Structures are given as C-alpha cells and as structure tokens.
Amino acid sequence: MNIQLTGLDWTIIAVFFAVTLIIGIVVAKVSSKSEEEFFIGGRNMPWWLLGFSMVATTFSTDTPNLVTDFVRQSGVFGNWQWWAMLPTGMLTVFLYAKLWRRSGTVTDLEFYEMRYSGKLAAFLRGFRAVYLGFFFNILVMASVSLAAIKIGGSMLNLSPWQSVSYAMIATVLFSAIGGFRGVLLTDFVLFIVSMAGAIGAAYFCLQLPEVGGLSGMIEKLSANPELADNMGVMSYDDKEDLLNFFIIPFAVVWWSIWYPGAEPGGGGYLVQRMLAAKNENHAVAATLFFNVAHYALRPWPWLLVALASLLVYPDIESIRQAVGDVLPDAQIKDDVAYSLMLTKLPAGWLGLTLASLAAAYMSTISTHLNWGSSYIVNDVWKRFVRPQASARELVWMGRLSTVLLMVLAGIFALHLSNAVAVFQIMLSIGAGTGLLFMLRWFWWRINAAAEIVAMISSFIFACYFQIWHHQIFSDIILESWEKTVYPVILTTICWMLAAFFGPKTSKEKLREFCAKINPGGPGWKKVIRDAEQDNCPVVPEHPAQNIALGVVAAVLSCFSVYSILIGTGDFIYGKFQSGMIYALVVVVTMIGVIITWKKMNRKVN
Hints:
Elements: H1 7-26, H2 28-31, H3 35-40, H4 47-58, H5 62-74, H6 80-83, H7 86-103, H8 111-115, H9 118-156, H10 160-206, H11 213-223, H12 239-256, H13 268-275, H14 280-297, H15 299-312, H16 316-323, H17 336-342, H18 349-385, H19 391-413, H20 419-429, H21 434-439, H22 448-472, H23 480-501, H24 507-517, H25 525-533, H26 547-572, H27 576-600
Helix pairs in contact: 1-10, 1-18, 4-10, 4-13, 4-14, 4-18, 5-15, 5-17, 7-14, 7-26, 9-10, 9-17, 9-18, 9-19, 10-15, 10-18, 10-19, 12-23, 13-14, 14-26, 15-17, 18-19, 22-23, 26-27
C-alpha cells in the first residue's frame, strides 16, 4: 500500500527533522567539553527533563506494534506481559534511584568495581560493557528498526533496506553531534510530538466507516463472540492465558528477569538518567514520573488503534493483501496492522503521525546509541585500552562508536520478523538474573562470581529451553510458562551457589561501599560489626534508607498506577460506576504514598 503525502504533511515532517537537528547542533559545543558532558549532561539535569526523556525513550516505534500484536493475538489482557513489570519499576523509584545517584559513576557498569574487588570485578565490568553495550544493545535497536521497516513498507512503499538507511542517517546525525544533553532536549520535543500523533491516530482510526466511532467499535466487537473478550483489561480466553499473561509475570517475571527499561534494581539508560540528575530527589522524581506515564498514561491510544484494527484487518490475509509485496512474507505479522491503520489518516494528521513515529524511533535509538557508546568508551576504551585518553579523544570515540552501533543494528534488523518474537528472546536471555541485581545492593554475600555465573547460566538455559530442548527431546513438550520458570529456578540456584562458595569480596571494598552508598537493611550488619571489631568503623556519607517503608510505597504506587490504567479503560467503555471506584482507589493510594514518602525522608539512625 502506498499513501499520498500532501504538501502540508511534508512540511510538518521537514519542520520536525529540522528542529531535532538544530537542537543537536546548538548543544554540540557544550557536549564536547568532557566525557561527563557527552554521556550524562554534567550531572545537572532537572527531574522533569529526565522523566520526559525516560518516557520518550521507551515510547519506541516498536512499542505500538508490540501492543497491537498482543491485542490481536490475546486481547488487551495480553499486555499484562509487560504491565506486570511495574513492581520492579516502583521498587527502583523508592529503593534504588537514590542509591544510583549516590554512586557518582558515569555508567552503571562502574558499579562493579565499586561493589566487588579483584580481577573478577574488572572482568565483569568489561564483559558486561561489550555484552550489553554492543551485542544486546544491537538486538534492542534492531527490534526498534524492524518497526521502522514495517512502517516504511506499509505506509511509504519503501523496501526494508531503504527504511533502515533513512532512519539510520536521520538518527545518528543528532545523536553523534549533540551527545546526552542533545538527546534529553530532543526527547522532550519528541515526546510531545509522539503523544500528539498517538492520540490523533486513535481518534481518526475510531472514525473510520468500518469502525463507526468508539461506540460502534464497542458494539461490533461485543457482537462477535471471537472478539468480545479482546477489549477487557481483565478478560482472558482460558486458564492458559491467565497463567501465561498474568500469573507467571506477577509471580516470577517482574523480579527475576532483566529487561531493558524494567531492570530489577535499575540499569541501563534509566540509570544513565538517574546519574545525570541534580540530586537524589530529582533522580527519584524522574523515575516516578516515568513509571506513571509509561504504564498508566500512554497505553490507551495504542490499544484503541489495535482494537479498531480487528475490524478493518480481521486476519493476516487481509494484512497481506493491504501490504502487497513490499515486505517479505516472513515480516507480515499482526504487528503490521498498526502501521496500516495509520495510512487511513487525513492530510496533516498523516504527516504529524509519521513525524511522531519518527520521533518515537529517534528517541529510543538515540538513547541506546548514547548509552551503548558510553559503555564502549567509559568501560572498555578508557578503562582497559587508553586510561590516559584525553577528553577530546573520548568524545570522538563516543561519536565513532555511535555510528558503528547504528550500522550494525540496521543490518541485523533486516533479518528479524516480528515484535513479539524479539520481546520473548530478550526476556529469556535475562531469566533468573533479576533477584541478584536487587539483592547486590543489600546483601554483602553477593560477589562478582555470582554475577558472572548468573549471566552465563541464564544464557545457556535460555538457549536450551527455547531452542535445544525441542531438538533433543522432541516428544517432551514444554508449556510456555515452563520455558520461563525453569530457567529462572536453575539460574537462581547457580548464582546462589556462587554467592556462598565463590571468591568473596574483600573486607575493604565492602566497607568502602557501605560508607559511600549506605543502602541500609540487615544485609550489611555483619560488615559493619566486623569493621567495628577491627577498630575501623564504617562512617556513612548518607543516611540509610528505610527498606520496609520503601516497599510499602512501591506497593501503594503499583495499586495507584494499575487503578489509573484499568479505570481509564472503564471510562472509555462507558463503565462509569466502576471507573469512579478505581478513581477513589487512586486518591487513597496516592495519599498513602505521600505519607510513606515523608516518613522515609525523616532522619534514619
């Protein structure tokens, strides 16, 4: 399908790209001053700018495609696979954001040599830099670029390589020029454009004759026995869906699996923004804003377009006919339906929506480029290759690595097929590591060996249960939930054994960590007691956190955000009575969060 863009559409798109490029050029001089300026903006960023950037980064081009894939295959309920990750986000807000800001590092990987001792700590830092900053980061960017391929093919009649090339050139220009400060400022603009485009797309897609407005969509979907349950946030087809999409994510996934943007204990580009905050409170506020916006405020425009697509493109064959031969057959999946729905928008809004999709793409990719580049430069080049490198050399290495990452991600994107498949791959690779990432802040026994074992074993078990098991034991069929739970259990056992029996972190390093970070909790009492017995007591630089109150605040916040999410759906569907009940829950839980937060910030001995 090829759409005709008007002069108004092209003007909107041109203005959008001009603004993003100008921002990169304007801040280029400041960003080039030092490594800290290029990668974390000089540690002087306000919470609202960081919060908007966090939200914009996770508003990637593949997210509406992923949401559409979930809705078309499993209904709105299928999205609990990622909504269930909110608890780890809220724990990051109330327990880990302050700790990360206290660390004073340039990247989160510097944590390893702050927390662990010896050659294992150095190896872990370098290996994780290459593994996450290079290989895993390329996989994430490739999945986002896959969405760009499908949008370019279904909306603009572009071949896969054309879509990737155009997207790469536009993004890498301002990412390499403006550094982290440019990314933040551009993200602010990109988020506004992205949200405007998403809301406009939902409105106009609902007005299509095949849909008949919001009431028409609800009526038509409700009248179809196969589609009636697709609308409900808590409606599922069978016990298997309940188990796979709700019970397992809440019972196992959120605390045990490492996933970009929802890392247990914080990590990656979210931590990069916490480290760039003015102070601890700005880091907390930014992370809280992100979690509320990401899980409660953004999903419904995407969900409405996805539901409407069920009436316009009821099956894969109808999608295939609409796309034609622009995309390879392997890439024509349910997630393409979102892009096809956007082709039906009126002039002006079509240009704005295309600009919003470009904004979503550029925001996510620019962040991953800057984040991945920070690992390569700070945790590989500066740490192991050229410790004496000048600020100018480090900045230019950052720019070169930015270009290299983008090129490789674009090439890899050409070989992927659909959003859900990539989502499942990333979940399986990090299975079983999450609990370690949370406990390492609060338990002295976690060591570098445990992290190495967790990383290796999770990858091996992911490969076995996702690929090798079926080839070796073809007669033993594993359920989807088993492929998630078993790797988590086995990986956790492996790293726990390493924590107890592996090389321990030196007393000096543990005491330094306690003094600098002072996480609080019973897990450090032995270290503090031993230091006192050796007549070298730990003198903390910061007050300890009240972990119990942090957990309470996180739980209350989860209830509040989920109530906003579900209540919004009830209001949209005309269920005002239940919607008001959820609104009341929001008010009560928010008051509880405020009270708990004030208690947490009282002086703790």
